[in-house]
Each structure stands twice: as structure tokens, then as C-alpha cells.
Amino acid sequence: MAKTLRDLLVLPGIVAFILVLAMMPLVIQTAGPDGGSLALVWKHGVDELKGYVEGFVTGESFRFFSGRNEFSFWEQIGGYFRISFAYIAGGAVVGTTLGILTGIAFAYSRSEWWKRAVEMTGVLPDFVLIILLQFAIVQIAKETGTVLFKVANFSTDEPPAIVLPLVSMIVIPALYMTRNVALQLRLALTEDYIGNAKAKGLSKPYITFFHALPNVFPYIKADLHKFMSILVGNLFIVEYFYNMRGITKLLFADAYMGYYGYQYDLVVNGLATLLVLYGALFALLRLYIFGWEKVFAR
């Protein structure tokens, strides 16, 4: 009963969190004669919330301004969602695949230098990695005169950058998955059933993929929300630095819109869309890992 009640309260709790979170730029105000302290002024946030609820019925809550033009949120959000989902799904699937395969190699490897290299790369912040990738492409272009990949989207009329954003979405989650799989696989290889499989004369690849690896998948699934939080956090950085027209870029670019001020309605709708993106990504990853489990099930 308690679990059922908790499950029923999850969605309303998330909606309430989004509504309150979107208020924060309005609620947190400077105070004091020199503006050096902060105060919480809930009236501004509550007024915006009331306006959002009223506009939700009339449809006004789904209008927003970009520049001096007014747009329908429903007409625009599909394109933003497709871009964000394409990159985050590609990063998730490829990152998971590379992470599992590299984690298996790490579990057996006795070499330390490349493990240290991966660990060092893993501690680099997302934005540092992106800057290094862009810098490398610029330097190669200066030295050779050949531009290997676009480093960012400079205009909506130009073809978008594809390779570097996708690489940036893959690397960080792949490194995290590599460490996780390597750790759990090393532990699995010390179990008694592995010793029994070796005593039967089974090959190392068969033992790895059909005995040890299936017992790693439950740990991957248990850690899935943490893995996805890395992906979503990475998406904010990637879309901002590469100037991609995704959901987070919409929030960055149009949340504050000059004359029109803070667009509370847009922020609420954008955060809700990110929630839908998260749910779609979770379903995709669970299905993908389920496919791995079916392939290597004994």
C-alpha cells in the first residue's frame, strides 16, 4: 500500500518541483541597501504560477517569444526535441556499447598506462573536453588547410555540426560505463561458478560473455539513472557550446527575452519536455540492455 501511494505521488511531485524550480529566478531577489544580500519574494513566483494555470486553459501558456517574434510552443518543440533526442540517444547507445566492450578489456588487462589514461580523461569536465576537441580541429585546419569537422553551428541556414557533438555525447558516458563494467566484471570473475566453467574447459570468450557478463547487467540497470543523469547534464553543455537547436538551447536562449523579461511559461514547458526526453531515453536504454541480456542469456 505504501509503495502504491508513493508511486502515485511521484508524477505530481515532479510536476510541483518543475513549477517551483522555474520560479526561482523570480523568487530570489537582491535585498539590502547595497544589494549585497538575497531574499525570497514568493509573490512574484506565485503570480506567474497563477498566470500559467490560467493560460494553460486558454492556450496562452504555450506561446513564447524568440527575438521579436511570437511562436507556438507546440509547433516549435518537435524540432528541438528531435535534435536533443537524436544526440542523447546516440550518445547513450554508442556509449553503452563502447563502455561494455572496453570494460571487458579492462577487466582482463594487466597494463596500467591506458587505464590511467582513461581515468585521467574521465575526470575532465565536459566543457574542457569539448574545448579541447574544438581546439584540435582548429589547429589541424591551420596546419593542413583541411577542416575535418564543423566545430559549431553558426547559423540556422548552415548544415549543423554532427560529428563533434556526437563524439562529445559519447565519450563521457562511455568512460563512466567502462569503469562500472570493469569493476563488476572483475568481481564476477572471482565467483565459484566461473571456476567451475573453467574446469569444464570452456573458452575464455564463452565464459566472459555467457557466464560473467550476464551477472553484470543487473548492476548496469541499477546504475541506469546515474548514467542518464550524466547524459542529460552532458546534453546541456554540448548544446550550448556547439550552438545546437535542442531543448536546453531553447531554455538558454529564450528564457530571458529582453523587453519581455523572464518567460516562466517557456521554462516550465521546456523542463517538462526534458522530463519526457528522460523517460524516452530510459525506455530506450532498458530495451537496449534487455537485448544484450537476451543475446547472452545462458
Helix-strand blueprint:
Elements: H1 2-27, E1 28-31, E2 37-40, H2 42-58, E3 63-66, E4 69-72, H3 73-108, H4 113-122, H5 126-144, H6 163-188, H7 192-199, H8 204-212, H9 217-222, H10 224-241, H11 247-254, E5 256-257, E6 261-262, H12 264-295
Antiparallel strand pairs: 1-2, 3-4, 5-6
Helix pairs in contact: 1-2, 1-12, 3-6, 3-10, 3-12, 4-6, 5-6, 5-10, 6-10, 7-8, 10-11, 10-12, 11-12
Described by the principal axes of the CA atoms, the overall outline is globular
The largest sheet, given as strand count, sense and whether it forms a barrel, is: 2 strands, antiparallel
Q: What structural class should be given to the helix and strand makeup? A: mainly alpha
Which strand order does the major sheet show?
1-2
Tally of separate domains: 2
Uncertain parts: none
Cα-atom radius of gyration: 24 Å
CATH class type of the largest domain: Mainly Alpha
